[in-house]
Amino acid sequence: MHKLSFVSLWLLLGLLAGCVTINVYFPAAAAEQAADRIIRDVYGVPPRREEAPAGEDAVPPPDSRYESESPLWVALLEALVKPAAAAADINVQSPAIDRLRTLMKVRHRQLLPFYEQGAVGIAADGELRIRDMNAVSRLPDRVRLKQLVEQENLNRKELYAEIARVNGHPEWQDEIRATFARRWIDNAPSGWWYQDSSGNWKQK
């Protein structure tokens, strides 16, 4: 009977560990914060002050009176949950990422007049699109705009792939792209153009 209970306990712990791992498989919140840092850096906007989660400082320290009374299964479950919770983060540091960020920051300064003219906007998938070429009067500037948009979109794809690679999860690339797509638009200043999910152009 005791042997059966022990096996059942380990099966239950295994199922619980599996559920925890799935729930934090893609760290969506951490990815969004990382995207905001990168995008605001590219845009030349000061980073937001990162605050601790509400109530974090108010969490009381564990009461030692109950530590010795915790059942074995509680201790085992905590050991399984803590590594999974710690994995709910995303790494955006690598030489390749730093290089791409630098390229995009420099290019953004060249794109800025085209954003302000309404010639270029942000598509729903996070890529740049030429919205109104008529807003650019000079032919050399039109050629330059096409080059800038092509280079920017290429670097954005490279950035998403590199973030996924650095984190050891190439299958995250689509989710990273979707996260950045939302944040490129949300962090854009007033007056810029963007596409909604239906493909309609709107001005912030």
TrEMBL record:
It comes from the Bacteria. InterPro entries: YdbL. This is DUF1318 domain-containing protein.
